[in-house]
Amino acid sequence: MSDPKQNYSFWTKYKRYAGNELLLYIIMIVGIVLGIIIFS
Prior knowledge:
Blueprint: H1 4-13, H2 18-39
C-alpha cells in the first residue's frame, strides 16, 4: 500500500475528475455484480 501522503497527493491531483471517478466506481461495482451473477 502507498503511504497516506502519496494518496492525498494523488487525490488532490485528480480532484477535478471526481465526478468521472464516481461514475467509474459505479460501473465497476455493476460489472462485478453482473460478473458474480453470470459466473454463479
